[in-house]
Amino acid sequence: MSDPVRARIRAGDPDAFGELYEQYARTVYNHALRLTGDWSTAEEVMADTFFEAWRGREKVEADGGSLKPWLLGLATNKARNARRGTGRRLAFLSRRPAPEAVRDFAEEAAGRVDDARRLAAVQQALGRLRRTEREVLAACVWGGLDYAEAAQALSLPVGTVRSRLSRARTRLLRLTDEQLERGTEPAPARGEVRNGAAFAALPLKEETR
Q1: Which of 77, 151, 159, 175 shows a CA-CA span of 20 to 30 A to 101?
Q2: DSSP letter string over 43-89?
Q3: What does the pLDDT look like over 23-82, one tens digit per residue?
Q4: What percent of the chain lies above the pLDDT cut of 90?
């Protein structure tokens, strides 16, 4: 049975496409930000993604689940091109000023500084990951895609997604620990990037069957 939403998108219904944008624009932007490390570039990637989606709407299959994997796949390709053009790294986030201490809340303030240092280390470590590792982390951990959806988005076999994600998590934890040992200035989270200490440990959404 065909999906009415997909049918409307395929038919070029502007209202349906507007709903698609409202539902996934923030998700696509966050995905692009994590892959490019630059706010303005992420906005361009988001715009290019939806422009490409509109141009390629007739390629949408008549039946299927969420269109998020399709959009994140388009965004991943756009981000690859953007990174080739800009060469910017996610590590720039770690150069933000340190948070001010909270007077009379010494223990809480110390915890915030520790979290900020961890976040800075994670984000510097992200910049040292391979592109393919960042992409699978962005799709599975932050994008919330299951293995099958990530495989669709990245045009990879499911087994490759599983193994690549496992290696990416392991490398990210190791590189983060190395960065902490070397020492890094604390940096607060910004935008949608939050809780850096838990980045590599977040559970993957259960694979649908």
Answers
A1: 175
A2: HHHHHHHHHHHHHTGGGS-SS-S-SHHHHHHHHHHHHHHHHHHH---
A3: 999 999 999 888 887 788 889 999 999 999 999 988 888 777 889 999 999 999 999 887
A4: 23
Domains delineated in the chain: 1-88 (1.10.1740.10), 89-209 (1.10.10.10)
Angle (CA) 133 46 142, round 5°:
40
Q: In degrees, to the nearest 5, what angle opens at C-alpha 33 toward C-alphas 193 and 94?
A: 55
3-class SS shares of the chain: helix, strand, coil, % to 5? 70, 0, 30
Q: Note whether 119 and 200 are within 8 A (CB).
A: no
Contact assessment for residue 153 and residue 72, using Cβ atoms and an 8 Å cutoff:
yes
pTM of the model: 0.61
